[in-house]
Amino acid sequence: MRLRLGRLLLLLLLLASLPYGCLLKNHEDKDDLLLATPPPVAGVPARIVPGCPSNCTCLAEETVDCGGLDLHVFPSNLSAGIQHLSLQNNQLRELPYNELSRLSHLRTLNLHNNHVTSEGLPDEAFESLQSLQYIYLANNKLTVAPQFLPSSLRIVDLAANRLSCIYPLTFGQKPGLRSVYMHNNLVNNTGLPFRCLQRLRCCHHPHLLQQPAHLRAPEFTSLRLPPPPTE
């Protein structure tokens, strides 16, 4: 019995000392070579994905995470086929049209907590993003909402900016749009396109219900509006 156990332990030690790829019998094509490669670790850039920017995480070709990298410039080498892009927690001030317009398959764009200004966000910035469904621009420095947003949008987060004006086509003519987050802005009832907001389901939070008493429609439950002026 001891002899058998000794042989078994010796065999296990020999197997453990072999390179990972040697455990596969054959890897004549690329798929087998990928199987011989240890899986990517979350938070580590996967360089086998083409078009992954430096220091970003790309665990799949359609998903790019460049969050928290102190970026001051929008990445210029993104793959045109990506669908989900996270650039949150950076220092971006503008979105260059020539770079953003290439991402025609983009479905999610997360720009939360940057320094994007209305001057750095041209009106035509999103016109080619006809697949975009989710856009997060909270905690930036926008003073005017984007004039034109894609009709494919479902969720728009513009909270915690300096918005004082919203255009009719910011939220209008978007049949799939269901949620808009606009709390902690400077917008008042004169800057709101009421008809465009009638079908929306906005975020509901008890601390955000600070709109004037004459605004009772449910679509304004997420708006932190200033009280009307007193005479």
UniProtKB/TrEMBL annotation:
Pfam families: LRR_4. SUPFAM superfamilies: L domain-like. Keywords: Leucine-rich repeat, Repeat, Signal. The keyword Ligase does not apply. InterPro entries: Leu-rich_rpt_4, Leu-rich_rpt_typical-subtyp, LRR_dom_sf, SLRP. Residues 1-24 form the signal peptide. One of its GO terms (cellular component) is extracellular space. The keyword Isomerase does not apply. This is LRRNT domain-containing protein. It comes from Phrynocephalus forsythii.
